[in-house]
Design a protein that fits this description.
Chain lengths: 136, 101
């Protein structure tokens, strides 16, 4: 089985709520993770808005799915690449995003950051290394 | 003739906000809602364009800001937050509504 593990990249390019893309991406990510694949997520363009801290849909009758990002670590989805240039264009920094962590069982369950801040050039290399790329 | 312009698309995904600003005359109002509220944030790449629109009053829909995690301190100067009733009032107060969908 192990030789069949592929590198899956989910490329999140759109803001949450305005369209269904962000939510659908999460659904597919969790399916991929359930099949023990090597799953990564990238957030570029308006996709970085998906990770903004403090989302509260109580006044707009939509489902707040932002809490799902915090659960990704429990599904061994621990690589969330956030593009620096996209944050900067939107006047955002890492401090504006939800803290997302995972527990490393090979390191005495140490809590580690899931978010990896990368430049566009660095992310291009990560994408180049993938077997499958899904764009949402 | 006063006009309420509405923008519901992210300024980074579509040109709706930029197009709207090109036509919003002095005395008109611009309401940002849905993904349009990202245009109301300070320090982003479109903030200068919004600030440069003289004589135009800007509004953003509170529930849509809240859903997206955009708190008051993240808003650009001069943006007034309205609720759904405020949206209706703006539509009534102005002679017409121009929706930049």
């Amino acid at each position: 089985m192990s030789e069949n593990i592929k590198k899956f990249m989910y490329l999140n390019r759109r803001a949450p709520y305005g369209t269904i893309y962000a939510w659908e991406s999460l659904e597919v990510v969790l399916i991929g993770a359930a099949f023990d694949q090597d799953v990564s997520l990238a957030f570029i363009g308006d996709g970085v808005y998906q990770l903004l801290e403090g989302q509260d849909t109580s006044e707009s009758e939509m489902k707040n799915f932002s809490t799902t990002y915090k659960a990704l670590g429990d599904y061994d989805v621990t690589k969330l690449y956030v593009e620096k240039e996209s944050l900067e264009e939107r006047g955002l920094t890492l401090d504006d995003l939800m803290p997302l962590t995972w527990e490393d069982e090979d390191d005495d369950w140490a809590e580690k950051d899931s978010i990896r801040l990368v430049s566009r050039a660095e992310l291009a290399d990560v994408l180049d290394d993938q077997d499958v790329v899904y764009s949402f | 003739m006063s006009t309420l312009h509405t923008v519901n698309k992210s300024p980074f995904e579509k040109n709706s906000l930029a197009d709207c600003l090109g036509y919003a005359k002095e005395g008109s109002a611009v309401l940002m809602y849905e993904d349009g509220v990202y245009g109301a944030m300070k320090g982003n790449a479109v903030a200068e364009k919004v600030a440069a629109a003289s004589g135009v009053k800007f509004y953003a829909l509170g529930p849509d800001l809240k859903a997206r995690g955009i708190s008051e301190e993240k808003l650009a100067e001069g943006i007034e937050v309205v609720d759904y009733a405020g949206f209706v009032s703006l539509a009534v107060e102005n002679d017409k509504v121009s929706a930049w969908v």
